[in-house]
Write a structure and sequence with these properties.
heterodimer, A: 319 residues, mainly alpha, ABC transporter involved in vitamin B12 uptake, BtuC, two-stranded antiparallel ribbon, 14 helices, 2 strands, B: 287 residues, 11 helices
Amino acid sequence: MKKLLWPGITAVLLLAYPLVFTTPFQQRLGALVLLYAIAASAWNIVGGYAGQISVGHVVFFGCGAYASLALFTHTGLPPVLGMPLGIAAAVGIAAIIGTPTLRLSGHYFSMATIAVAELARLVTTNTEFLGAAVGLSGPTVPRTWLDLSFISSVPYYYLFLAVLVITLGITWWMERSRIGFYLRAIRDSEKAARSLGARAPRVKLIAYLLSAGLTSVAGSLYALMFQFVDPESGLGILISVKMLIMAALGGAGLLFGPLVGAAILVPLEEISNSLLGGRGAGLTFVLYGAIIVLIARFRPDGILGLFQSARKAPEKHDA
Amino acid sequence: MSATLVQVIVGGLLLGAIYALFSSGLTLIWGMMNVVNFAHGDFVMVAMYIAYVVYVLLGGGPLASVPIAAVSLATIGILAYFLLVRHVMRGPMIAQILGTFGLALLLRYSMFGAAGANFLSLPDNLVGGTYEIFGIRLQASRVVAGIVALLVTAGLHLLLTRTSLGSKMLAVSEDATAAQLMGIRPDYMQAIAWGIAAGATGIAGALIATFFYISPTVGETLAIIAFVTVALGGFGSVPGALVAGLLIGLIESLSAYWIGGVWKDVVVYILFIFVLWFRPQGLMGKS
């Protein structure tokens, strides 16, 4: 039962948050934390568990956001129905990037992810169908409940919480399955894992496809809440940065790492933006850059890693 | 062949020479230490701003800015090695990639704070105006930059293959422990490699600044071009980077001419995906 203590406390806190903090700013903040926690948890599957660092994960986020709003713009159907389209696009793109690169050293994968994200941003910026540089909007006035358009952030909060629970559930299941076992072996030593019969590229690819699909769901949820996406908010490199920094700060490869990272960084960014205005955005990312460098230099296993290594001897990594 | 097409081809090759120069720095580090510097494009960006500052403060052209940028960037490279890279190299993959990626963000957004988001450029006639040879019009700045870049890349290749310093660096990249037993200090050699790679990047940045827009985010585009060049050329190969750089300059130029300026990067990025699928070892890499 002791193992369920912390997840239990976290669950109660998360369920009670909107009832305790009742101002619109606080409730919106809570919803944003959960939204980014979903995206960062999805990143964690490939970045943390498989140890393949995607620096262009925003392309999958963009798939979800654009699929939802493009479907609404061109057919009038509720944006939420775009979610499966977004997942399909994300998984397809992930297969195109992952199939060749996951056979090579991890650097190729990282370079390919950043190039594909930039490619997607450039193509979208020049494609009228996807709103070009102007972007796409959702149904600002809800027509039916299916539009999932609310003024309050509380319905989004609980919707995101449900999706986060599903995402973490999938991650937890994967962690305990044969795939999770192989992934840990590959991350520690790919050569050794291969010699024991793990088909490394295929296992990594499965993790990548799963991660891409879930990231796309986060993109669709973003589109539902904000009802707007443009190349910067849906495909900008900074979204990729947020996903990886949240997972890495909290603890990459740990189930609750991304949630912890999101709970620290999202309020930090929102508060600095509201205090400093537009100037704050640039400053936030100087700070993000510094945090990423410091994590890499001193604590590659993040905050939760501190508690882990306190309990057991630190793992040895081979480069 | 029309004169315009010849002009496009020559222009592309000259631009490609600069791509080759700054990609050589990336491929040198990668081949030697198996580390990809994700801040590489932002090193070029910093060098471009240095060229701008030299022009504004000293009124100097490339004759002043190229050496200043080379020395400043070499210093930044060596500092980056000792303060960051040396430590993250021994860590897990995530530390290696996040380390230089974080450095890239730090440089990019510090520059936003320091210089603003506006696009800057050096005056067109800073280097001798425009020439007309056989009906082809060429900007002097591009010709000078292209030729200097070719010479520096060739020099870099000779340094690596024909000098004792180059042999020592090769020894470290082959087997650091064995090199150490021969009395070569691996961390010195690696620091020197970072100095040389970043210095070459500094030269490339100061050269490209004479005809390219300068902005804090220009490094992202340039970094991806360097990735494509290195992947196409073959990892660790300076001659490979040279051929690939020229080829990519040419492809960009021709695609800008035939299908429009906004699509030139798209074509290059798609080429990258093709290389990864069909020739991941690159043109000159070992498979």
